[in-house]
Write a structure and sequence with these properties.
Chain lengths: 143, 143
DNA sequence: TATTGTTATACTCTATAACTATA
DNA sequence: TATAGTTATAGAGTATAACAATA
């Protein structure tokens, strides 16, 4: 068994997680980007600028992602009224349903990746992953 | 501090790793896909079909990735001689240099993500990540 | 003038289907 | 006929730059 450096091990873990997540999203006819967007608006409308910042993407990239997601009937743009420059994004009923289905499936199927570990090791990994993610990217609990 | 489910914690960890890796690749003027390709051919030529299987992508998708990478002067196609259908892919000098630079940078900078952990926790995470990655995706040690 | 969001354009990545050349 | 690889086409994602409307 080759000694694998820490960096490579993290990268390998990330790859298997990403691959499984993409599959889960695809099973619900979603791309990962759209699933993430839905997750952030499923509990109430949010401004475009706020979403772009949370997603770590430029506002124009978000605008294009929203275009595609809106075309699928999963979200819709709304005017805010007070400031007429502002657009808020809300989920549709179909979007909310999809978001919750993916979220449940992530919780159910992603942990399978660690099925080869002992229960104690799984708990360890759970805690360490949460700790690193929280430190590097605070306020980002999304499927 | 919100209780984060295991699936969400894994996803959060994967996101921060992926983001950092993409940045490291970009610092060397590479995309993650191209860096991965370079990594697989940097120690000797490989057949297209073999590469496609290793990368988990269809052979036509690989052909296109190779097109872009070859256009940048990082790899080049060679005929195998024996079977004239076969094409082998080799790195150029520039490609080899880039591959090794990225590889070194991954080893140097990716572990920083875990800098908030104790040395013991880092060792734990290292072992657990390597174990899960090896089980889910054997033979895949690549930057 | 500064801010919010969009449009235009370009490039990467990946997928499906149809294709060429060799075996 | 089967295999190795390519080409055509399309859609998703993201980036930069220029733009429109509102404050």
């Amino acid at each position: 068994m080759a000694e694998q450096a820490f960096g490579e091990a993290l990268l390998g873990l990330s790859h298997v997680i990403q691959r499984r997540h993409t599959q889960i999203c695809a099973d619900h006819d979603l791309t990962p980007a759209q699933a993430q967007l839905l997750c952030m608006v499923k509990d109430g409308p949010r401004r475009m600028a706020e979403l772009a910042a949370s997603l770590g993407m430029a506002k124009n990239a978000l605008s294009q992602l929203v275009d595609r997601t809106e075309r699928r009937g999963l979200v819709h743009r709304e005017s805010d009224g007070n400031d007429r420059r502002v657009i808020t994004l809300a989920v549709t009923a179909a979007g909310k349903e999809a978001a919750e289905a993916v979220h449940a499936d992530v919780a159910r199927r992603l942990p399978d990746l660690a099925e080869g570990l002992s229960p104690g090791d799984r708990r360890q990994l759970h805690g360490l992953a949460a700790s690193v993610a929280a430190e590097q990217c605070p306020g980002r609990t999304c499927s």
